[in-house]
């Protein structure tokens, strides 16, 4: 995946998810951002301008975060990138750029050798920040947050690289799309929804689900769902089948975002082990594919609309 590509990017449990995903990638595959995850998820973004060199408009940028890489391309500043992260996958132009590691394994010497005037890094990468300070290289420190912070990041990053008008236009467009989705589903009933972004394949063990904060939660609520774990104020929750039974979701949505994932709708049959759960009883267990669900970047409105169309197809006719 991107990462989370997932996806990412997502709280303490998300960090564990990221570690599992990145370990799997070394053997076969990455799960954010998307932070993704995860590097999934991959996978809510905001930047704080941090210490480093004298701040000028960045012309040579290293981004090791899938979401910000996508932002730069979407605002027309992809030509500023001189290197990207290991799990950046979108748009296709990133395949031409050097890779310099990610959350757990940044290639510090390679990054510095690129002579960047701006490095976009994760807020937890203390050692990388220290090395950049020593080299007098400016950086942005990235932290997973909520849906509204995505457009704030776009505006901030656009100003930093000198394309503020295009970045503001992009952010405005995303906000209009999200407002349109909210308007469409405003009068629809809000089904209690469990949003799952990972579990052990072939089982219902170690279910990773969206909690009550973060961009996945915000996307679900914007799309007209009521997050069944919304009262748990963390970005991800490791769930047991007992907890699923207790919460009784009316809809279950599984997100699949990893490249090379060959699962299909038949892989949802494991949920049949919980026939009393309303979502299972009423055949409202779904799968949605796409890295955009766990990369908190410019594709977030399109991903949110896909959730909305699944929950409330009548609102999007």
In short:
This protein has 317 residues and is an alpha/beta fold.
Question: How would you describe this structure to a colleague?
Answer:
With 317 residues, the protein is α/β, with parallel strands linked by helices. The protein folds into two domains: 47-180, Nitrogenase molybdenum iron protein domain (Rossmann fold, 3-Layer(aba) Sandwich); 188-316, Rossmann fold, CATH 3.40.50.1980. 34% of the residues lie in helices and 16% in strands. It has ten helices and eleven strands. It has helices spanning 11-27, 66-74, 108-113, 126-134, 147-161, 164-185, 215-222, 241-247, 278-281, 300-311, and strands spanning 45-49, 61-63, 81-84, 118-122, 139-144, 192-198, 207-210, 226-227, 236-239, 251-256, 285-289. Helix 5 packs antiparallel against helix 6 (164-185). The longest helix has 22 residues, at 164-185. The protein starts with 10 loop residues before the first helix and ends in a 6-residue tail after the last helix.
Strand content: 15-25%
Mean pLDDT: 85
CATH fold-level assignment of the largest domain: Rossmann fold
Report the strand count. 11
**End-to-end span in angstroms?**
31 Å
CATH superfamily membership of the largest domain, which one? Nitrogenase molybdenum iron protein domain
How much helix, percentage-wise, in residues?
Answer: 25-40%
CA-based shape: globular
What is the ordering of alpha helices and beta strands?
HEEHEHEHEHHEEHEEHEHEH
Largest sheet: 6 strands, mixed
Structural domains: how many? 2
Helix/strand/pairing category = alpha/beta
**Rg over CA atoms:** 19 Å
CATH classification, class level of the largest domain: Alpha Beta
């Amino acid at each position: 995946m991107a990462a989370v590509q997932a996806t990412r990017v997502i709280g303490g449990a998300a960090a564990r998810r990221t570690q599992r995903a990145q370990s799997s990638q070394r053997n076969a595959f990455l799960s954010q951002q998307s932070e993704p995850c995860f590097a999934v998820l991959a996978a809510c973004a905001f930047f704080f301008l941090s210490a480093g060199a004298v701040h000028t408009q960045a012309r040579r940028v290293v981004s090791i975060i899938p979401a910000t890489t996508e932002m730069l391309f979407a605002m027309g500043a992809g030509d500023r990138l001189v290197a990207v992260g290991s799990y950046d996958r979108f748009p296709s132009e990133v395949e031409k750029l050097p890779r310099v590691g990610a959350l757990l394994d940044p290639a510090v010497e390679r990054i510095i050798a690129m002579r960047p005037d701006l490095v976009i890094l994760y807020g937890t990468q203390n050692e990388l920040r220290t090395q950049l300070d020593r080299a007098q290289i400016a950086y942005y420190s990235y932290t997973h947050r909520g849906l509204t912070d995505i457009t704030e990041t776009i505006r901030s990053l656009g100003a930093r690289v000198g394309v503020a008008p295009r970045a503001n236009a992009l952010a405005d467009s995303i906000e209009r799309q999200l407002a349109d989705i909210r308007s469409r589903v405003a009068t629809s009933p809000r089904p209690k929804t469990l949003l799952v972004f990972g579990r052990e394949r072939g089982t219902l063990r170690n279910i990773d689900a969206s909690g009550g904060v973060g961009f996945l939660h915000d996307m679900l609520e914007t799309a007209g769902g009521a997050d069944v774990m919304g009262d748990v104020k963390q970005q991800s929750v490791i769930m047991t089948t007992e907890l699923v039974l207790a919460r009784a979701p009316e809809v279950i949505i599984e997100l699949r975002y990893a490249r090379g994932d060959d699962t299909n709708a038949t892989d949802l049959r494991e949920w049949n082990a919980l026939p009393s759960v309303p979502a299972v009883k009423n055949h409202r267990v779904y799968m949605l594919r796409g890295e955009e669900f766990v990369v908190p970047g410019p594709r977030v409105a399109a991903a949110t609309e896909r959730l909305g169309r699944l929950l409330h197809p009548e609102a999007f006719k």
